[in-house]
Amino acid sequence: MLEIVLCEDDINILNYMSKTLEKIIKNSSMECKIILKASRSEDVEAFIQNTLGPNMAFFLDIQLKNSKYNGYDLAQLIREKERALKQKKSSIVFISDYYFQYLSMGYNVGAANCLKKPVSATVLEDCLRSIYEDYLLLDYSQSKAQLLHVKVGHEIYRIKPEDIIYINRNKTTRKTVIHTISQNIECSDTLDVIEEKLSDTCVVKCGKSYLVNKERIIKINENEKTVYLDPGNGLEAVECYYGEKYKNFIVEVVRSAFNKPGIG
């Protein structure tokens, strides 16, 4: 989850940004949440000192009126706290009426972006998506649990291998369809690319057109070269076909790895 902090001294702009970002998040697959919106730097300072987490994005107005700090000062506090905690850097986005004047300041603290007011919904969405993509890549590289990342248009899906039932190639659209316990996702990645991404997981290849979750195999029919998979939620078993050269492997999965002797 990417957690977002907003700091803007103009209440109207603060509310606009909050509502716009919430709408963007709601209409996307991005796992984000606004956890603080403030008009005073003191509120953000207290948050930094007491609550700063590893997956954060800060949208900071540089010129904060009637506040102890400006946005640049807050960015420096964020970096100091991160160094003290030895945690990864948060994404910082500066917002200002004077865009070019503050570009160098942004570079100094490793800001992700600097947006000029007024900020349109399109610019906000592009900025958030860019930050979120970077967050996913860093989160994936540091995570012990392997996740499958697929991009569909502007959306990025993070899928747990154990939630996958099977994956096949749609002969009509020539796209890859990932069937999970909650939804079907169609993407442009080839089966070979998906297989490589899922190496060393529970999802394995059982034929030219199929990848299956071996932990969901409940039985096979050797005569019809069919694998039966449990989709969960009490639903009827799903059938997939396996290639002849994968027969011994599939049989071994059922007999040995999962101790299921019932081969149909």
Q: Would you mind describing this structure in some detail?
A:
The protein is an alpha/beta fold and 264 residues long. Helix content is 33%, strand content 29%. It folds into two domains: 2-142, Response regulator (Rossmann fold, 3-Layer(aba) Sandwich), CATH 3.40.50; 148-257, LytTr DNA-binding domain (OB fold (Dihydrolipoamide Acetyltransferase, E2P)), CATH 2.40.50.1020. The chain has a five-stranded parallel beta sheet with strand order 2-1-3-4-5, with helices on both faces. A five-stranded antiparallel beta sheet has the order 10-9-8-12-11, covered by helices on one side. Strand 14 and strand 15 (238-241) form a beta hairpin. The longest helix is centred in the middle third of the chain and has 22 residues, at 121-142. It is elongated and about 80 Å long. It starts with a strand and ends in a 7-residue tail after the last helix. Residues 260-264 have low confidence and may be disordered.
Task: Provide keyphrases for this structure.
single chain, 264 residues, alpha/beta, Rossmann fold, OB fold (Dihydrolipoamide Acetyltransferase, E2P), 2 domains, five-stranded parallel beta sheet, five-stranded antiparallel beta sheet, 7 helices, 15 strands, 33% helix, elongated, disordered C terminus
